[in-house]
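re: ur question from yesterday

yeah so i grabbed the chain u mentioned. its 398 aa long if i counted rite. heres the sequnce exactly as i have it in my notes:
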Amino acid sequence: MTITATTEYEPLTDSTAITLAKDLKFFKEGALLHCREIGDGNLNLVFHIRDENNTGIIIKQALPYAKVVGESWPLTLHRATIEGNYLKNAATLVPNLVPKVYYTNEDLAITIMEDLSHLEIVRNGFLNGKDFPLLSKHIGEYLAKTLFYTSDFGLNQQEKKKVQQSFANPELCKITEDLVFTDPFFDSETNDYEPELLGSIEEIWKDEDLKLEVAKLKYTFLTNGEALLHGDLHTGSIFANEIDTKVIDPEFAFFGPIGFDVGQFFANILLQAITRDVSQRASITSHLNQVWEGFTSTFSDLWKTKSVEYYSQTPGYLDFFLKKVFTDAIGFAGCEVIRRTIGLAHVADLDTLKPYERRLSVKQQALILGQALVKNAATIRNIQDVEALLEIEIKGNV
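ran it thru and got these C-alpha cells back, copy pasting raw so excuse formatting
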C-alpha cells in the first residue's frame, strides 16, 4: 500500500498494514514482519506489527462504522484525527502516561504509535486477579494535568476557545449522550440485558426521581465545556504493569465537564470491585481513594501556582470547584455503572462471571449501586461514603 497524495481510504488488512509499515520505513529493509489484528473494541482496527527482533509498532485505523453494530451505524473517520491530536497534546503534559505517536494520516484515518505489548490492559489484569500498584497514582496525575492545562484555569481563555473548535466531536459525543445518558433509562432497542433482569430494569424506567437526576447530568455533559476530556476513560483504555501506565483510545475527546473523566474511572473500578469477595475488595477500592487524592493534590498545586484566572486565589473558590467535580463524578459514575450493565456496550468484569446465576446477582447489585450513586451524588461527601455505599448496597450478596 504505497501512500501518495491521492491515496483513498480503505480498511487495512494484515498484508496491507505490513506494506504500509514498509512504505513508511518503520523497519529496516528486508525485515521479516509479522502482523496480527488485535482490536477488541467497538470502533476500530488495530494491527500489531513486529520484526524478527520483536521490535514493533501499532497501527490503529478508524472504521467508517461501529463494529459492535455494523455498517448500518456509520461513523465519521475524523475521530482518528481527534485521537491523534489529543495524544500529541497529552504528550506535552504527561509524556510518560500516553503512547508516543509516530505518524498520523487523516485521509487513511490511521495513527501509528508506540508498541505497548509489554504492558497489559488493566481490565484484563483485574480479571486475572492482578493489581497495578501505581495505577491510581498515575491516573490521578494524568487527570489533573490533562484537565487543568486545558481548562480556563490553566489555559488562556481565548486560546481555549480556539482549541475547542478543533476538538468538536459531535458524532462520538452523540454516542455517549445516547448510550450513557438516555437509552438505559428508557425501553430503547439498543439496550442489551438478560431477561431475568427485566423487572429491575422496568423499575429504573419508571423511576422519575432517578431520571430527573440523569437529565441534569446529561445537561451538564451537553453544556459544560470545562476542559479537554479523554471521553472514554475506562480500564480497557489503560495499559499498565507494576511501574508504567499508558492511557490510550481518546477518540471520544471533546471539551466537557471535568467530572466526567473522573467518574468514568471511578465507575470502572467499582464495576470490578462489585465482582470481588468482600475479603478481596479492598485492593480494588483503594484505587478510588488514591486516584482522587492524587487528582486533588496535583490539581490544587497547579491551581495555586499555574492558574491564569484572576479569581483563583479567592478563598473558597478551589474548594468549591473540587466539590463540584466530585459531585459530578459520582453522578456520572452511577450512569456508567448502569449503562455498562444493561446498555449496548457491556464490560467483561460482569459478562464473564460464572455461573450464570452469579452474573445475574452481581448485575442486580450493579443496578442498585448505580441508582444509589446517581440519586445520592449531592450528599456523598468523599470516597469513604462511596465505599460505605458499596458495602451497604451489596452486603452479603456476593
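noticed a couple things. The chain has a mean pLDDT of 94. also The longest strand covers residues 44-50.
anyway ttyl
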